[in-house]
Amino acid sequence: MRIAASPEIAAAYEAAGWWGHETPTDLIRRNAAERPDDTAYITWSKESGDGFSGRIDRTTWAGYDRLSDRVAAALLAAGLDRGDRAAVILPDGAAVHAAFTGADKAGVVVMGIGHRAGPAEIAHLVEKSGARAVMTGVELRGQPASDAIAELRRDLPALAHHITIDGLGQDATIALDSEPAADPEFVPGFAEAIEARRLGASELCLLNSTSGTTGLPKCVMQTHNRWFYFHQKAVEYSGLGPDEVFCVPVPAPFGFGLWTAHYTPTILGVPTVVMADFDAAALIRLIEAERVTVLCAVTTQFIMMLNSPAFDNHDLSSLRLMFTGGEAIPYQRAAEFEDRTGCTVLNFYGSNETGMLSGTRLSDPRSARLRTGGKCDPEMDCALYDPDDGQRLPNLRGRGQPACRGPATALGYYDDAKANTELMTDDGRMLMGDIVEIDDDGYLRVVGRTSDFIIRGGKNISAPAVEDEVMTHPAVAMVAAVATPDPVFGERVAAYVELVPGTSLDLDGLREHLAERGVSREWWPEHLFLVDSLPRSSGGKVAKGQLKGDAADRVATEAN
Fold first, then answer.
1. What DSSP line would sit under 305-351, residue for residue?
2. Following DSSP, what letter does each residue of 193-259 receive, concatenated?
3. Bridge partners (DSSP) listed for residue 376
4. What is the rounded CA–CA span in Å between residue 126 and residue 37?
5. 224-245 tens-digit pLDDT
6. 334-358: per-residue pLDDT in tens?
7. Long-range contacts, stretch 141-145, CB < 8 angstroms, 24+ apart
């Protein structure tokens, strides 16, 4: 069954210049023809190697094109039909992008799964997508991938084939069901088959998951065109050009990682630094060594960079921009990043489902760039809704739950009618899971997620706002605020904190600091839990669902 945007919508977006007919395959081939030896990807991994405390693999545009052809040949040899799904569970590197493109050439839809996903999440997504093949490295979560996939296939008989990609760059070797895969040069009719099967720009090309911080994740349906449109807005808002060097430590299968590492650098024809294993000190060294101009990192990552002793020992003056987001941005730390590097911090507000709803621009003042999600994009037809009754509010001002429809939105959730009903408003817009305020100048500010309020004695307390204030304490490296159950107030505020090495903190000291800052007492944490590291979801965000359960257990134990 072919899944694609409606022909009417596609035609309208194409006429407006927002969508087109090219795919990454066209762009990679063009780059390979025009600049075959130029670098497409620089992959860093923790393997011992070149004095970088790790290994560097460089992949050219020609090498990228050849590697994706070899992936396509393996999928054809596996007998997958056009429109079949193949799960991809690979660490970040050139190989994962070649796997995405190779599947696209073969007319196969990718089920992109974060390589740190646990067995239950992998099994759920493989089964949900109906994948007939899975692509992995030779290891998966520290064990031989062949063993892990054999165990998976015992419960999922539809999963017929296992493709392994051994390596992160253009010299990776590919095997199909433990046998060396055929070279496309020796596959009769390969070029003709690719042209007949490859996916179109408005067709379903990739499924990826929601972050999965609570419950089992849903599968979001992606098209190339939504990210081509996103690229246009990124260029408009930030002035991206042909001389950029990107660095993207964000996981590839998720929305932020897609536009910053799979689409925009390919459209511009510029190199991208990616990391198979995240390491803040290594990231800092890579920015200096590769003269990176555009860093794309979630809040957790750039804060870890700021906290690293390596930060002040390396020249980061090449940085022009940092794109961040995906959660509330701590103003003080983002401002510190700008001050210490000289770059400009920008963010787009949206989700894996909506793509973008609003964004900040180079021309925006710092207060708007770091405290808001920018202004709503006119093409995205945004509106605000009452979170209690779902009714549309009369103006795009004030407080409400935002929703949008336009050229950046996904096709919805795969095979999930109930979730799609909950995602969409009655008038056809796609809802965000946040409460926002839009001021008189049109700037959007996230107050909190609809599920990320702590309701204490009937008062809504924004968890991101609490986190922003707690983060100002000099001993706090990372923080997550969650609700703990309380028999009198309903909920109280708990703060999970990672400490800066060599420091200490107790609840009284934290409260004294917040009092000195004039923070409302209702925002003060009433429980402080010090942890070595905050748990993360597959998408790199803090797994708050896990913390809420832990907080409830701790409080119950203390009460007894």
1. HHHSTTGGGS--TT--EEEE-SS---HHHHHHHHHHH--EEEEEE--
2. HHHHHPPPTTB--EEEE---SSSSPPEEEE-HHHHHHHHHHHHHHH---TT--EEE-S-TTSHHHII
3. 358
4. 36
5. 999 999 999 999 999 999 999 9
6. 999 999 999 999 999 998 999 999 9
7. 141/116
